[in-house]
Design brief:
The protein contains 2 helices and 6 strands, in the order αββαββββ. Strands 1-2-4-5-6-3 form a 6-stranded antiparallel β-sheet. The protein is an alpha+beta fold. 25% of the residues are buried.
Length: 138
């Protein structure tokens, strides 16, 4: 069983959107969101940018769980495929998985599913890793 690393502090953006990190253990970060009318685009479905933000948060968070306290990372590339629409009243869950982690780069994949288990979107991405946090975070 993975050790609980204590849930990280949410950014103002994540709080505004309504994200909840429900798991934050070594190699795992799970982001959940109950969908409301505020999350919809003009067409009445969840805005694609919301999916991108959920995936970026879950995948980046997954990588963060494996870094030392001195290290930092940032998204260098993120590719998303949107598979199904989601609507107000649904509940989305995003997860990430490390495919390969090197000294300076990590490759991850992630997915979003809804409360019925339907795959809503999947992604792959690359994160840069630094051995020292930027001075703005120290």
């Amino acid at each position: 069983m993975s050790e609980d690393l204590s849930v990280p502090k949410l950014t103002k953006l994540a709080k505004t959107i309504g994200f909840e990190i429900t798991e934050f253990t070594e190699g795992n970060c799970v982001v959940e969101l109950p969908i409301t009318e505020e999350h919809l685009n003009a067409g009445g479905v969840v805005h694609g940018g919301l999916h991108a933000t959920m995936l970026d948060t879950a995948m980046g968070g997954t990588l963060v769980t494996t870094l030392t306290k001195e290290q930092w990372c940032a998204t260098a590339q993120l590719d998303i495929s949107y598979l199904e629409a989601s609507y107000a009243g649904s509940h989305l869950t995003a997860t990430g998985e490390i495919i390969r982690k090197g000294k300076n780069l990590a490759h991850l994949r992630g997915e979003i599913i809804d409360e019925k288990g339907r795959k809503i979107a999947h992604a792959s991405g690359t994160w840069a890793i630094w051995n020292k946090k930027p001075s703005s975070l120290v």
